[in-house]
Amino acid sequence: MESETQPMGRRVAYWRQRRGMSQQVFADRIGKSKSWVDKIERGVRRLDKYSVITELAEALSVDSAQLLGREPRRRPGLGGCLDQVEVESIRQSLERYERLGRFLEAAPIDSTPIPELRGAVNYCWLAFEKGHYPVVARSLIQLLRDTPVAEDRPVGGTSADAAELMTQVYQIASTVLRKLGEAQLAWLAADRAISAANRGNDPLLAGIATTRVANALRSLGRYQAALDLNVQVAHGLISEHGGESSSPAAISVYGALLLQGAMAAALAGDATTSDDLLDSASRAANLLGRDANYYYTSFGPTNVLLHRAAAFVELGEGGDALAVHESIPPAALNDLVAERRAHHYLDMSRACIQVGDIERAGRHLVTADRTAPAEIRCRPLAVDLIDQILHRSKGEPAQDVRRLAEEVGALN
């Protein structure tokens, strides 16, 4: 987000673009000319009337303080997060049924060519892996509109191709919404992902979509249901794809299902089952022989270690989690995508709090923030951790931790 030292026009442009409005659409909304908007954004014309600033803020669905460069504390949207307007847009996209347009008397929507959609979905995945959540939100809102239409009226491909792209879109939406604490909406998106995957020709997409459903169930506190789902699908998938002779992609999806099952077991307090599943995932990773990213799983030996550490955290065994962390080769960890690494450092911060090492907890949290800021600034779990670190620090917290707390509005 733009800072107070940057021109207000640039902040107007930032929020206009984030809302998906052209200069002309924005100008029409506020009753001004496109030229007026362009001059404001380029700094040629000054904004010196508070009434005008308030009008612009209302049209952009932001607080006027955000245009003035003074972010309200803990307001959704800090640090590159999705804000409530964007979450609501995704909700509305999930609730629309463009394919029923002929029954709803809706005007027909042009179908986007499938090769173009494939490029947009790949771009959305890359933005997600880097933690660029506003970019993800804008992509999702459009893709949730376009992919159902493409399945109904495919151009440059088949309906099955469009369905496979649609399941990926729903999976990204489910994962982002779960991170933001929108568990019910995450479950809806994940359920849609399963349905779309079954209309495609790639059974592995249905397998990986299962992990999104199970993760949403975990967020809803249904740990046993999440465990059962992951394990059942994992066993069915590996049997169907030839066991140890399965393709690297099938092994990766199988391993990802086992890892998510292990996390569900840990949350249910079942340490034995969690450990068994992690051992099975480790054997699968050894078969794969390297860290890979088939179907955006980041599956491999390193990710198994990350999940083993995370499972210890969920079981309240912070010391064991930190021991696993120390065993991970730094180079291997650094090769993982930013979102995965930041998530791990967040888990290690929790582990440090469990063992009472508050200073080290703060360092891990700062590292996570530097790796993928949205993983810290946008997640309720991370903000709660910052609060804990502030309240349990002896004396003043470290300067980096204090700066992070100020930026997310955690300081009173």
TrEMBL record:
Residues annotated as domain HTH cro/C1-type: 12-67
Protein name as annotated: XRE family transcriptional regulator
Transmembrane regions listed in the UniProt entry: none
Molecular functions (GO terms): DNA binding
InterPro entries named in the record: Cro/C1-type_HTH, Lambda_DNA-bd_dom_sf, TPR-like_helical_dom_sf
Species per Swiss-Prot/TrEMBL record: Glycomyces terrestris
Pfam families: HTH_31 (PF13560)
UniProt cross-references to SUPFAM superfamilies, sorted A to Z: lambda repressor-like DNA-binding domains (SSF47413), TPR-like (SSF48452)
